[in-house]
Specification:
homodimer; 336 residues; alpha/beta; Rossmann fold; 8-stranded mixed β-sheet; 14 helices; 8 strands; 41% helix; globular
Chain lengths: 336, 336
């Protein structure tokens, strides 16, 4: 066979490339660099090795390597309260001049006084009031712009932008899974339209791989252009039982690996681990009051009680944040 | 630089591979072989060339190349009535021995007599009765098995399995778009759990890229294993206004190209084409009574009226099935 010159050149270029790859493999850094060596890290690596080994009995074809991640407390922090609530609080303050009635009406009055705990004392009813006042009545495009603007300027009490309060070890885990053919999803109680604004940039998870809670939408013409208006009505709550339901509705395949941090994730972990073949469930246990926060059974936010018991009973992997994570946030300044 | 022998061997293998690729490109067949040359085929090719040209002003990054396809009448046939209704009818016949009351109760009595038109005369109420009797009361896994069994044995009146009543030109179009970096989705009024059973095998569209109508689900333990039970309650109807809403809920990005065949697709086409930048809308017009069916403005199924007017007014691409499609079904026997 005679080859044209450009093919030979291409061949030589590919030889060089292949040599580079060999070199890169020899010196390739640990993909889970921020995870301390130990049982947790080992469990992750062993699971991934098992399901990607084409010769093994636990092999899972790439199309079925679905991994689902809770967001609040699993991919980013959730203290002193859910970041989406911080967004809502800032939004209520911004909108207050147009709503003089809020000065005397709960839960708004307490929020405007800076007393979030009293505002939340109203329970689910208060939460729905807060969410609908801040997440409805605009188009989906307008809402996206509002969230973008907030993320660009708002700061967590620790002084960092919210999108820097994400967990470096979990970013590495997401990349590691994707490098091994997994499709990574967020399955969170958070609002889907809120998370989709930053999920791709923060986690490398595109909007279509984000499952979350949502309000009802209405399609209508506006200035001869169709828009989708966010209505003040809850459509779907992606928490607890809602997580496996959301997975079935939006993904239509049962995950082989799931990652959470609270009782709100228990049903997702149960659903994932009760499928056939190799399965993996991991719980992030917040045990580091110095670098992050320490909370579990009695926490108002991210309560981890039944899920921790079930993790023990069923041998799920539990991250001890303090000992398992070398680094917590991507920027060192994030540590308290 | 000295290279180990295996790298040199790899290089030689890659040269051979590259030569093969050059050869393959030289003799590569038309990716839209079943489309006759003409304005329709040209419009498709020009749009794809435009959005994939990195130097051009209409370039769209691969991540945003979302294309959404209606299913019934767009990817597979829908006459003499929706195939999912054929499934429901067969299912009612199979379940009839356990439901003696159906012999005298509409819409079941008519269905059991083989009179579908009379059964459907009951309108939406009759349809809901039919759907809930056949699509609820079992787990999602059980339903999947039932649909699989039906697809493996049921035959369309034309004598073919339903999954062979798909359109060869549309299969080529799906492949062509995917080869050009598009992510292809089904957005259909059909039941999402029905379509997900065959979408990957029939169209190369994985379950997680299927958006459709759905019933409510319930998570519950059964024999110590969690299951998802299909409840007799409509959750979401993915038709008309529901299509752009479904796109926003499930995909979270506006498509740049949409494909439909009836007024039920109009809002999806409006939503797609009203975004910024290059956009593409295509309507499959059923004009071939010999090889397929001919119907539009007054059809009981797949009514194409307002959407055809808007296509004309806005210059959307309309497939004239009779003249634009060289082949209709993958197997020649499918032609009447």
């Amino acid at each position: 066979m005679r080859l044209p010159l450009q093919v030979l050149n291409l061949g030589l270029a590919l030889i060089a490339l292949a040599a580079g790859n060999v070199l890169a493999q020899q010196i390739s850094p640990d993909p889970l660099l921020s995870w301390n060596d130990g049982a947790t890290k080992q469990a992750i690596v062993e699971f991934v090795a098992k399901v990607t080994d084409e010769e093994g009995t636990d092999f899972v074809p790439p199309a079925e390597r679905i991994a689902t991640f809770d967001n609040d407390g699993t991919l980013w922090a959730e203290q002193p309260f859910y970041f989406q609530l911080a967004f809502a609080v800032d939004r209520i303050k911004a909108l207050a001049p147009q709503h003089p009635e809020w000065q005397t009406r709960e839960p708004f009055a307490s929020i405007l006084k800076g007393d979030i705990d009293s505002a939340l004392a109203g329970g689910d009813h208060a939460l729905v009031e807060i969410v609908t006042a801040t997440h409805a009545g605009m188009t989906t495009t307008e809402f996206e712009q509002i969230v973008k603007g907030w993320l660009a300027t708002a700061k967590h009490p620790k002084g960092l932008p919210y999108t820097e309060m994400i967990y470096q070890p979990m970013l590495e885990l997401l990349n590691y899974l994707r490098a091994n053919g997994f499709k990574t999803y967020i399955v969170s109680g958070g609002g889907v339209e809120f998370m989709r604004v930053f999920s791709e940039k923060a986690y490398g998870i595109p909007p279509e791989q984000v499952v979350g809670s949502m309000g009802k939408l209405q399609f209508e013409p506006r200035d001869n252009q169709p828009v989708l208006v966010k209505l003040p009505e809850v459509d779907f709550v992606d928490d607890k039982d809602g997580k496996p339901i959301g997975i079935q509705k939006f993904i239509g395949r049962r995950p082989i690996a799931s990652f959470g941090n609270s009782d709100g994730d228990l049903q997702m972990l149960q659903w994932t681990t009760s499928g056939d073949g190799a399965r993996f469930a991991l719980i992030v246990h917040h045990t580091d009051p110095q670098r992050e926060w320490a909370y579990d059974r009695n926490s108002r936010i991210g309560r981890l009680d039944k899920a921790l018991d079930e993790a023990t009973a069923k041998g799920w992997t539990v991250v001890d944040m303090k000992t398992d994570w070398k680094t917590i946030f991507p920027t060192e300044d994030a540590t308290p």
